[in-house]
Amino acid sequence: MSLNLSPSSSAKRKGEIFLLYTFSALGALVLSALIVEAVGANWSDVWNALLDGSFRKPGRWGRTLGSAVPMAMVAVGTIISTKVGLINIGQEGQMLVGAAFAAYMGAHVPGPGPLVIFIVIISGFVGGAFWSGLAGALRYWRNVPEVLTTLLLVTVAANFVGYGLKNTWLLLDPDAAVGNRTQVSQQLDPDSRLPRIDIFGNNFSISVIISLLLIALTFWLLSQTIVGFRLDVVGQNQKVGRRFGISEVRQGFAAMCASGGFAGLAGALMLASGDFAKFRLVPGFTVNLGWTGLLVALVAREKVLAVIPVALVFAGLRTGSSFLAATGVERRVTDVVQGLLVLALLVPPAVLFIRDRRRKLAQVESRT
Amino acid sequence: MGFLEAIWDVMSTESAYTAATRFAAVLVFAAVGEWVAERSGTLNISVEAMILAGAFAGAMGYDWTGNVVVGILLGMGAGLIVSFVQAQMSHRLTADQFVVGLTLNILFLGVTSFLYAEWKPSSRVASKLEIPLLSDIPLIGKALFGQAWPFLLLYLLVPFAWWLVYRTRWGLEVRAVGENPQAADVSGIDVNKRRRESIYFAGICSGMGGAYLLLGQVGRFDDGIVAGRGFIALVAVIFGGWTLRGTIFGCLLFGSVLSFRLTLPGLGYELNNELMSSLPFLVTIVAMAAFAHKVRPPGSLARPFVRGLK
Amino acid sequence: MNELSISSIDGGSVYTGPPPAVTAEKLSKTYGYVKACDEVDIELFRGEIHGILGENGAGKSTLMKMLIGLVLPDGGGVKVDGELVTIRDPLDASELGIGMVHQHFSLVEALTVWENVALGDNSKLDRNKTRERVADLSLQYGLDVDPDDRVEDLPVGMRQRVELLKCLRKDPSVLILDEPTSVLTPEESEQLFASLRRVVEEENRAVALVSHRLSEVLLATDRITIMRNGAVIERCWTKDTDAHSLARGMVGRDVEVGFKEVKQSRKDSSKVLSAHPGENVEGSEKKFVLELSNVVTSSSSGVRELDGFSLGIKAGEIFGLAGVEGNGQSALVEVLSGLRTVSSGSVFLQAKEVPHNNFGRLAENGVAVIPEDRHDSGVVLGMSVAENLLFSNLEEGYKHGLLNKSRRDKRARELIEKFEINCTGPEAPLWSLSGGNQQRVVLARETSDKPVVLIASQPTRGLDVGAIEYMTGQLQELAKSGVGVLLISSELDEIFSLADRIGVIFRGKLAASMNREDANRESLGLLMGRGEV
């Protein structure tokens, strides 16, 4: 009656998985190429422009790294909340709130530069955690689906931060020359910005290193410590968790806060690295990176380390898109490519899931 | 004091009612479809993409033919396309319905803005149609019977949806599938097929809503045109406790909140634009916090069905 | 040819009447490497109740699901009235006149009776006609069902009548009932069998009664087919057989029917126990290791599932709690699993009160639980065997919060060996194990740390014979070693053969408790059915 997977079948399975993923991704790319051709452009021109803009032309991969950082941080946070079974899709808002907290602290906390940088980054985390924590609290306190609250809070965050950027007592730059004309926050002091590194003409901020460290730390926490174990238990079977004293409320709320915290941290890193909007907070500061980060997490699924390559590809699409003008194709075509890729990569796990279910079903059936 | 006064002023202004039903109308189109989808067990967050696709296709249809009817039909078709992807992915492949919906929202934001930049369709608002006598009712006459003519489609759609869900075999099966798919399955109902069909219905309704939004209200497409209306429609269904009556009441409530915000400045009240823009969303969240635990969702909402396992 | 082979078992008379209502010919179904049905032949005749008897896992349900179109066969065919047919889904089956009363999951609770009855038709929905038909049928079979009631408001026995109506409304020529009595009191079961008799004799339908209970098959059927391991083992007339030969056919070897023998051996072990009391017993008769006093729980809809439930378990005894399903058993297990807080009343563990609303406290202090549905609250399917063995004792795998993999896996390997868990190793995902082995993982985890009390809820349900023997043996061993065991079961046989004391749960209360010596089936049956003798 037992149904064990023999080693040979698991090797075969790996091959199947690889093929499935390859074909799905190819399908999405072919479809994208067709769309490009349909609007009268040449797909190979577009492909080359994307490569030039993201890696090949001088100084471009430094920019790509800069874009990959916030995406990766958002994705890591998303993986934490997914692990515990919660669906946080409001990273765009949590990022913005994190960036706002960071901008406020950057403008108001006195002290030596490194300390201010530290405070800016931490407050970004706190801001994001606060925003997702609201959704978490409503989830456990009032049973409100977190899918909806996180989503709705995105718009609320944008409006609130917009309000803050109109008032000097909150975020607006008190310098009348700047603040009266545009909605911007005070610029971070030069000594409270993240240092930048220059390699082969590629310039990027040390936020790249910070994010790599955080990815490694998260990977370790989730796979090697009881923190990850508890999240796993609650995420997969709340009743078993509760029976052995692992509270789904505590774990879930903490995971939700961590998830938003990483998004907020991404916002703070964007601000302090200066890759975006020159060390100032502006309306629409997060430029959809929260959404893209979420897509990165969807593709990486529950694997923290997979975030790195996926984020690089998506960041490449983003930086590459600025070279598309010469080909006569709207740069937003990359949004379409991204969406199609994600959609296509949802297929293989779903197919595998159905197959696993069938197998389990076979076991259930054979017993009843 | 000032607040109550403001409410009174708004309530005695005819344009406030017109604005409220205008806002509510798009919500009702989408929410009626979403209601059917949720009764069948799908929490369909791609409704936002469905409305957006409907609005864009409406603009294209009008641009090509100059005919509002064609615009609306194309809008329905576009909504159906989105729903087709959602339905096939979540109820044939059993991919997570939220993940699919979210991806579709992002994908179609990209698709429509890309195609808009390429094609630049031009369009305008459809003509107003005032129904004699009824539109002369004080305060609410214009609001209910004096809007751009596609508004009147609602008077057909809502009763039709009610009849469909409560009076036909298909509707009975949809309700059964949303409550207890295992039972429906052993009774000989193709669970996932009914769920897919319900999503198609949601796609058609939302596409119609999107086309109405464009051709009945805004007139010109831009990629921010939907602005979260789909999500509010989705919440209206929850707010309405998964009944049609409650859903429509929810839409009207959210429409009123939006109208409140729009009407006040015209009456000379100072208010902060950003904070007021958040109001519908905050009201939505508060409403859910107050009601979410009181209403009973369809027994199998947001759970995929695979035969043989709970 | 089949008819001949069957007739020869019947005792020589060659069958010459009309063809059977349904004939299954060499129906086969294989899942992975498991042959759930292996070329099974079966014939259902009009005017007969045909018992299909077999252990869990014998292939009865798969066979019936193939007849009803829920499972598609790999080989073989089905004939209706002698004509070969294809059945792809339940609608096909119902058009051919085959209807099934399901054990679980066939009514939608939120819908009304008439709506449920209308489900599964494919004609136009006609409210009034359906309601009238339901009322007529209800009258005709004396079922007393109101078409406008919501199913969720009906008691279990009533729901089954709705289920029966749903089937009869399509006027089937063949009626299949899958374990229909598992949720019924003995009295309700008798009523059901009486209705079935009427269906068979007055309306000349064929009925197939699928069951694993010897007694009811003997009582209610005309003809019996015994299945084991996916194949038909024996066919016979009910009047020509007895419990012993049926049991032999079911299990494949001689077994004791009843419980006298087992009872004797348990007597010995309890003697041993009183001679050498375990460390928890301390000689005193009154000492309870687990005591519940006036426990009340209420569901979200306000129903009191436990309504002043009191019970004491002594060290070293097996307390058998009998009762029809749905009388508060699941709430009781949830309370003792720490999954649910009580609204009032107290739980004492070794004479100390356990505070309410403190998840994990009970498990930490030695209350082990073997849940009825292990997938629901016993295991995490997506985690490994080693991890599943860890929950009760996290220190074995994590030191200061850091994973100590070698220690975790070493312990897992020991337990895998000790409990003979068949898996590829500590890292094997739990879902890759068979049901019996998953149950052993639960057993290993729950009992390896010397529990004070063990709550076993329907511990043998869904297991095959070997696994059942293993499980009951383990329960007896544990009791012998001084653990107080609470055995919750709806199988009176199981309770009689294992328990030292017996109680009956009825509508959330302990209706009675007694020593096994003072218990008899009749009074227990009455207690289960109406809470008093």
Protein architecture, described:
The complex is a heterotrimer of chains A (368), B (310) and C (533). Chain A has 368 residues and is an all-alpha fold. Chain A is built from 14 helices and two strands. Helices cover 71% and strands 0% of the residues of chain B. Chain B is globular, with a radius of gyration of 19 Å. The termini of chain B are far apart. Chain C has 533 residues and is an alpha/beta fold. In chain C, the strands form five sheets. Chain C has a six-stranded mixed β-sheet with strand order 6-7-8-3-9-10, with helices on both faces. A six-stranded mixed β-sheet of chain C has the order 16-19-20-13-21-22, sandwiched between helices. Chain C has a four-stranded antiparallel β-sheet with strand order 2-1-4-5, with helices on one face. The radius of gyration of chain C is 25 Å and the shape is globular. Chain C starts with a helix and ends with a helix. Chains in contact: A-B, A-C, B-C. Chains A and B meet through helix 5, helix 6, helix 12 and helix 14 of A and helix 5, helix 11 and helix 13 of B.
| Uncertain segments of chain C | 1-13, 256-284
The CATH superfamily of the domain at 260-366 and 451-530 in chain C appears as P-loop containing nucleotide triphosphate hydrolases
Helix content of chain B: over 70%
Structural class of chain C: alpha/beta
CA(first)-CA(last) distance of chain B: 55 Å
Concise synopsis of the structure shown:
The complex is a heterotrimer of chains A (368), B (310) and C (533). By secondary structure, chain B is mainly α.
Question: What descriptive keywords fit this protein?
Answer:
heterotrimer, A: 368 residues, mainly alpha, ABC transporter involved in vitamin B12 uptake, BtuC, 14 helices, B: 310 residues, 0% strand, globular
What is the topology?
The complex is a heterotrimer of chains A (368), B (310) and C (533).
Chain A: H1 7-38, H2 43-56, H3 60-83, H4 91-108, H5 113-142, H6 146-164, H7 176-179, E1 196-199, E2 202-205, H8 207-224, H9 226-236, H10 238-243, H11 248-273, H12 289-300, H13 307-321, H14 333-367
Antiparallel strand pairs in A: 1-2
Helix pairs in contact in A: 1-14, 2-3, 2-13, 3-8, 3-11, 3-12, 3-13, 4-5, 4-6, 4-11, 4-12, 5-6, 5-11, 8-9, 9-11, 12-13, 12-14, 13-14
Chain B: H1 2-11, H2 14-39, H3 47-65, H4 68-91, H5 97-119, H6 141-145, H7 153-167, H8 169-179, H9 181-186, H10 191-218, H11 229-239, H12 244-266, H13 273-291
Helix pairs in contact in B: 2-7, 2-10, 2-11, 2-12, 3-4, 3-5, 3-10, 3-11, 4-5, 4-10, 7-8, 8-10, 11-12, 11-13, 12-13
Chain C: H1 2-10, E1 22-31, E2 34-44, E3 49-54, H2 60-68, E4 75-80, E5 83-85, H3 90-95, E6 98-101, H4 113-118, H5 127-140, H6 156-168, E7 174-178, H7 186-203, E8 206-211, H8 214-220, E9 223-228, E10 231-237, H9 243-251, H10 260-275, E11 288-298, E12 304-314, E13 318-322, H11 329-336, E14 344-349, E15 352-353, H12 361-364, E16 367-370, H13 374-377, H14 385-388, E17 398-399, E18 402-403, H15 405-418, H16 435-447, E19 453-457, H17 465-480, E20 484-489, H18 492-498, E21 501-506, E22 509-515, H19 521-530
Parallel strand pairs in C: 3-8, 3-9, 6-7, 7-8, 13-20, 13-21, 16-19, 19-20
Antiparallel strand pairs in C: 1-2, 1-4, 4-5, 9-10, 11-12, 11-14, 14-15, 17-18, 21-22
